[in-house]
C-alpha cells in the first residue's frame, strides 16, 4: 500500500498538539513537506481468498491535483495572461471525487495557475505604393491601398482606425495646364511704333501663353524727347484653378511687345525742333532692352526632401545672360518676371519597416 508523512505543531512546554498558527510565530519553524512511501510490500497470503483494503492501495487512487479550465486570455494579441484554480481531490472506491487538504497532494508538483497566452504580434497597417497622379498637369490626387495584416501576413481586421495611414493625398505635376500653341508661319513685323500700338490694345490673359504688357511709365523728361518703359510678361490662364501664372518669356510665341519707347514732351526753352519718327528710331531704336538681355531660366531641381515614402523637389531658378548663357546677378533680372516655383514628387518607394 502507500502511506504519507504528516507534521503537526507541538507545544514542547505542555506536551500537546496545537494549531499551526503557533508555529508560524517563529520563522525558523518550517513545516516539512509531506512525503509518500510504499508499505506492506509483503505478498498477501493466497489462502485468505480476499485482500484487506487499506486507506491507500492499488484500488484506492492517491489524492491528486485537479484544475478548472483556463480563463479567456486577457489580450487577443501581443501577449496576455490566463489563469485557473487548482485543488487537491480524492477519489473513493465508488469513484466519487471530493476535495481534501492540500498537503495530501504535495508529493507531486503543483500545476501552474497562471500562464502567458496570445504572444504573437498584433495586426498592423500595411500601405501599398501610391497610384499615379489623377491629372497630367497642375494639381490632382493620388491614392493607395492600406491593408490590415496579421502576424502570418494574412489580410484581417483588428487594426486601430486611429493609426490608419491616409489613403488619399494631393499631388502636383510640374507641367503648366495650357494647350501648346501650334507653330504658325511668322508674319513680317510691322514698323515698331505701329506694332506697339496694336499689341497694346486690350490684351487679356487666355489659356494659351501670351504676352501681357503693363502700363507705360511716365516720360523720362519733362520736355523734349525722352523714354518710356514698361514690363512685358508671358502669362497663361490655368483653367483648373482659374488663376494666372507667369511663364518664362520663351514660352510665348509671336512678336513680343516692346518694353521701351521714345516720348516727346514738347519743346524745351523755346526749342522748336521736332523729331520725325525716322529720327526717333535712329536715336532710340538701337538701345538694347535691358530686360531682354537678362532673363530667368529653370535649372533643374533641388534634392528630394525625403529619402523614402514620398517627398518633393523644387525647381532651381537662376538669372542668365541670354547672349553668353552665363549666370548673372539676380538683381539684373526683373523680379516680377521670375517664373513660378514648381514642385514634383520623388522618392516614392515605401520606407522600410522600423
From TrEMBL:
**What domain of life?**
Eukaryota
The gene it comes from is Adamtsl1
What is the species listed in this Swiss-Prot or TrEMBL entry?
Answer: Ramphastos sulfuratus
Q: Which Pfam families match?
A: TSP1_ADAMTS (PF19030)
Subcellular localization is given as:
Secreted
Q: What is its main location?
A: secreted
Q: What is this protein called?
A: ATL1 protein
Q: Which PROSITE patterns match?
A: TSP1
| UniProt keyword list | Disulfide bond, Repeat, Secreted, Signal
Its cellular-component GO annotations read: extracellular matrix; extracellular region
Amino acid at each position: 500500500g502507500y502511506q504519507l508523512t504528516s507534521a503537526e505543531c507541538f507545544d514542547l512546554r505542555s506536551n500537546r498538539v496545537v494549531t499551526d498558527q503557533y508555529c508560524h510565530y517563529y520563522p525558523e519553524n518550517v513545516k516539512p513537506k509531506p512525503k509518500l512511501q510504499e508499505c506492506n510490500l509483503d505478498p498477501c497470503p493466497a489462502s485468505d481468498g480476499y485482500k484487506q483494503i487499506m486507506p491507500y492501495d492499488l484500488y484506492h487512487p492517491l489524492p491528486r491535483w485537479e484544475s478548472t479550465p483556463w480563463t479567456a486570455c486577457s489580450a487577443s494579441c501581443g501577449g496576455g495572461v490566463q489563469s485557473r484554480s487548482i485543488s487537491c481531490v480524492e477519489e473513493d472506491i465508488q469513484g466519487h471525487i471530493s476535495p481534501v487538504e492540500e498537503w495530501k497532494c504535495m508529493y507531486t508538483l503543483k500545476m501552474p495557475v497562471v500562464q502567458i497566452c496570445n504572444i504573437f504580434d498584433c495586426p498592423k497597417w500595411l500601405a501599398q505604393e501610391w497610384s499615379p497622379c489623377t491629372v497630367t498637369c497642375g494639381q490632382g490626387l493620388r491614392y493607395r491601398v492600406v491593408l490590415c495584416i496579421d502576424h502570418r501576413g494574412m489580410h484581417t481586421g483588428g487594426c486601430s482606425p486611429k493609426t490608419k495611414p491616409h489613403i488619399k493625398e494631393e499631388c502636383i505635376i510640374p507641367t503648366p495646364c495650357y494647350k501648346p500653341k501650334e507653330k504658325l508661319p511668322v508674319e513680317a513685323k510691322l514698323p515698331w511704333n505701329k506694332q506697339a500700338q496694336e499689341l497694346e490694345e486690350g490684351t487679356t490673359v487666355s489659356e494659351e501663353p501670351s504676352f501681357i504688357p503693363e502700363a507705360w511709365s511716365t516720360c523720362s523728361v519733362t520736355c523734349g524727347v525722352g523714354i518710356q518703359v514698361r514690363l512685358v510678361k508671358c502669362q497663361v490662364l490655368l483653367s483648373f484653378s482659374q488663376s494666372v501664372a507667369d511663364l518664362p518669356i520663351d514660352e510665348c510665341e509671336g512678336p513680343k511687345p516692346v518694353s521701351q519707347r521714345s516720348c516727346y514732351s514738347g519743346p524745351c526753352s523755346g526749342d522748336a525742333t521736332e523729331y520725325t519718327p525716322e529720327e526717333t528710331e535712329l536715336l532710340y531704336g538701337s538701345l538694347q532692352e535691358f530686360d531682354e538681355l537678362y532673363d530667368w531660366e529653370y535649372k533643374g531641381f533641388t534634392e528630394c526632401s525625403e529619402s523614402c515614402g514620398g517627398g518633393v523637389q523644387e525647381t532651381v531658378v537662376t538669372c542668365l545672360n541670354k547672349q553668353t548663357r552665363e549666370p548673372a546677378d539676380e538683381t539684373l533680372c526683373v523680379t516680377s518676371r521670375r517664373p513660378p516655383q514648381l514642385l514634383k514628387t520623388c522618392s516614392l518607394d515605401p520606407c522600410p519597416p522600423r
